């Protein structure tokens, strides 16, 4: 309400993440010269009060939940704000609304700042309204003349994905947004989905991965007969859907119909997705393993791709335009070109269209780096097209590892291969920039504290199952980390060796790896708001462990040995 109200009043709507420190809040508020700050509760209020004296433009603070624990000048409750406006005439506001122009900036999205300070992405009225219209037409969302689309909001609204889907597209089509509990990403999201039964859902990869882990762990407890039925159904589901992708299906196979009745419908109901015709994934890379897992259960995950600077989506997969691991095709009215492609067709992905942003607030040099003279937005991502113009993301220029030997290595495909080979592993991060060889940080799947979102020491059921198969009785991360469990370490090394055997060159082999004491998390600072690994942050946090890897091997007499660091 505050966001939309600010825009209608001719101001800028700006979001701050609830996980931001007082200093990070100060940076955003100072950078955009905020006049009014709206906070959720006393805890968030304290962050602003700590830096209030450094914010010369600040006129008022509004707390919209709970009662105020202290009275201060220019500090209001939401009820106070409503009362202030109750006796104001509509005429001045109507004049402001009628004076607004499509090309004026109306919202600022601060990039999460995985590299350097966050940048204020300026989006215009036209950016938002045109993108909402184009996306809703492209994915064939139902408008109110035919029914009502229902979605669940669980990502921070400061993020462009949540803002575009949960606010602007929903308003455009007259849909309904249900707001999940604050602990949605800590495990309560599925309960909300079961209550709401959404018709469309955008899940960040970690959401789909967590669902996959939960289903696998529940499946492990089933009877042998049930396991066999589910395995058969998944084989049928994957084959039928892959045939559909390749247009090899002239009719619906009989065994698919049985599998749907026995398994697929029940899975959808358990997840609250029985009405959900479109399940999307975006905002971070997703593994092929997770895509195939859901496809085998007759839940295709349609990948989309974009960025804050493109008002959200740029390419989207559709039921009739879908390729596994592709991010789909351009939105209508948008264009993609690949800048400086190599011999395999990989180039920097550039966007063009009415969704492209106005520039970065007060950062003309950064704006010139991102937007060229012809209006193409340079994404910093690497990608390629197939013959049907489906876009595939192959890496990120800033994440590209350039070894001391000069080899360019995109890390994500190697990290995904390790996670796929080792179901025990939660996060895998490849290291090797300016180094003589590649190494990897590994974290173990564990239980998560439902209240704080912090990773706990107790292993997840999937991790326990892996350990038992490896001949280990480990039940905690601390039983494994730092080389304490030789059986698990041997099993991890076997998985790494399998990945290395498929490496395209010796330079792409993982020479050393370590298991960290705890998993990555948002509260720990290793993950961003959409659960994407903040690589520069991780490099800083685990600098000592990384330095040890390379110092140890420098002293070793056999640098080609593939070993784990303990």
UniProtKB/TrEMBL annotation:
Its EC number is 6.2.1.3. The keyword Transferase does not apply. It catalyses: a long-chain fatty acid + ATP + CoA = a long-chain fatty acyl-CoA + AMP + diphosphate; (9Z)-octadecenoate + ATP + CoA = (9Z)-octadecenoyl-CoA + AMP + diphosphate; (9Z,12Z)-octadecadienoate + ATP + CoA = (9Z,12Z)-octadecadienoyl-CoA + AMP + diphosphate. PROSITE patterns: AMP_BINDING. It is found in: Cytoplasm. Keywords: ATP-binding, Cytoplasm, Fatty acid metabolism, Ligase, Lipid metabolism, Nucleotide-binding. GO terms for cellular component: endoplasmic reticulum; membrane. It comes from the Eukaryota. Residues 2-361 form the AMP-dependent synthetase/ligase domain. The keyword Lipid metabolism applies. GO terms for molecular function: ATP binding; long-chain fatty acid-CoA ligase activity. Belongs to the ATP-dependent AMP-binding enzyme family. Bubblegum subfamily. This is Long-chain-fatty-acid--CoA ligase ACSBG2. It comes from Solea senegalensis. The lineage of its organism: Eukaryota, Metazoa, Chordata, Craniata, Vertebrata.
